[in-house]
Amino acid sequence: MSESVNSMSASTDQAIVFPNGIGGFEDYREYRLLRSQQPESPLYWLEAVAEPAISFTVVDPRVYGLNYVLELTEEEQTLLEVTESDEVVVLLMLAKRDAADAVKPSIYGNIAGPILVNARNRLALQKVVRNKRVELNIIGG
């Protein structure tokens, strides 16, 4: 992954296109990638171009020491038009739990549904990961 989410968020005028939509939001296919206004924040938002009220919080999973080991199917490679693996940027979608479930952390990452973006052409998909292989790097202080 030589491309970074930072370089993609720099050009918010160019939409990220999900040819198949995002699970549950299949009608919305074009999104802007927006960076948090907080300079130190690792957060980004995928905001639907047609309906800005629809947005998803995403983050580079490496911020949390997660490194995905993913194998793209032929169909996924074709959809993303991937020629080199380093064109693909992986984003972890974050979600907030209902306040009623106070025992669990209030914000969690959907590791089973990462967002994959071809940084070269800005085609994207949400990959459903059935056999999760996520490497966790624990960094000592």
Structural account:
The chain is mainly β. It has a single domain (5-136), classed as BH3618-like, CATH 2.30.290.10. It contains 2 helices and 10 strands. The chain has helices at residues 5-9, 74-80; strands at residues 16-17, 30-35, 43-48, 55-59, 66-68, 88-96, 107-109, 115-118, 124-126, 134-136. Strands 1, 2, 3, 4, 6, 7, 8 and 9 form an 8-stranded antiparallel sheet that branches. Strands 5-10 form a two-stranded antiparallel sheet. The two termini are 25 Å apart. The mean pLDDT is 83.
Q: Assign a percent range to the helix content.
A: under 10%
Terminal CA distance: 25 Å
Main beta-sheet strand count, sense and barrel state: 8 strands, antiparallel
Overall mean pLDDT stands at 83
Low-confidence stretches: none
Tell me the number of helical segments per DSSP (H or I, 4 or more residues long). Answer: 2
> Could you name the CATH class?
Mainly Beta
What fold name goes in the CATH topology slot? BH3618-like
Tell me the Rg in angstroms.
Answer: 15 Å
In percent terms, what proportion of residues is strand? 25-35%
Helix and strand composition category: mainly beta
CATH superfamily: BH3618-like
